[in-house]
Amino acid sequence: MSDKNQATYAIGELAKEFDITTRSIRFYEDQGLLTPRRKGQTRIYNQRDRVRLKLILRGKRLGFSLAETGRLFELYDADKTSVTQLKTIMDLIANKKNDLNQQLEDIQAVLIELTGLENNCQQALAAIDK
After folding, report:
1. CATH number for the domain running over 1-78
2. Do residues 73 and 41 touch, judged by C-beta distance below 8 A?
């Protein structure tokens, strides 16, 4: 689609491009993360919506919640100088890294426990086989 020389997109086009469902896109709209124009029942997404959708999906892959992503969008909209936004992003990154490091430690501890349990089972099986 094209509208006033600015690229526009139908919901199906964005869904196909990003390999997600139209339902997901409507959900992001319901959460206030996307704001397409309406022409009757048809949603018309602009380049800003497309970029935001890309950022939403990237944030999800990095473990950011939709609320965190929405907060960043709000900061960006309110403060184009982006000092506050960059500091907030850095805080979110630091928190996410801490969370991931904790998860990594937890996973390593569970793996050690499972290895110990596995060894005990192997020893018990060896004792039974004798």
Report:
1. 1.10.1660.10
2. no
pTM listed for this prediction: 0.69
Give dist(CA 122, CA 7) in Å, integer: 63
Burial of 45 (0-12, 13-18, 19+ CB in 10 A): buried
Residue ranges covered by each domain of the chain: 1-78, 82-130
Question: Tens of pLDDT along 80-113?
Answer: 666 777 788 788 889 889 999 999 999 999 999 9
Q: How many CB atoms lie within 10 A of CB 14?
A: 21
Average of per-residue pLDDT across 17-30? 96
Q: What is the DSSP string of 45-78?
A: EEHHHHHHHHHHHHHHHTT--HHHHHHHHHHHHH
Cβ–Cβ under 8 Å, residues 24 and 14: no
